[in-house]
Amino acid sequence: MEFIGVPSVALIRSLGPPLVVLAVGGVVLVRRRPARARLMWAALSVHLAAAALPFAWLLLQAGAGVGRQTVVGPAMILIQPAVDALAWMLALAAAVAAVPRRGASSRGRNAADPGARDDPARAR
After folding, report:
1. From CA 91, how far away is CA 62, in angstroms rounded?
2. Fewest Cβ atoms closer than 10 Å to its Cβ: which of 6, 49, 108, 112?
């Protein structure tokens, strides 16, 4: 990582916590299997990508030879927090999204009239 001017300890310090969150979240998602697991996997992945984005940006700058220009820095100041906010929005959507109920389509209703209520005689 010295190629882009970042010590390895800074890389570990920045990527370590999101990697731990991804590992622990992955274990929880595999064991629990919640209804919106795909949204949570997406949130965990986007969170890790947001943490790695500054380093990818530095690699891109070093590879393109524009690393000494100060114009490219403000773009990362705006993009990285936006990607992290997207990860939080995905996690929030997974937490509050309505869970579809199993078997609630037409069970207990009259097949001829889908809007009919259950028979009160059968409810007793």
Report:
1. 33
2. 112
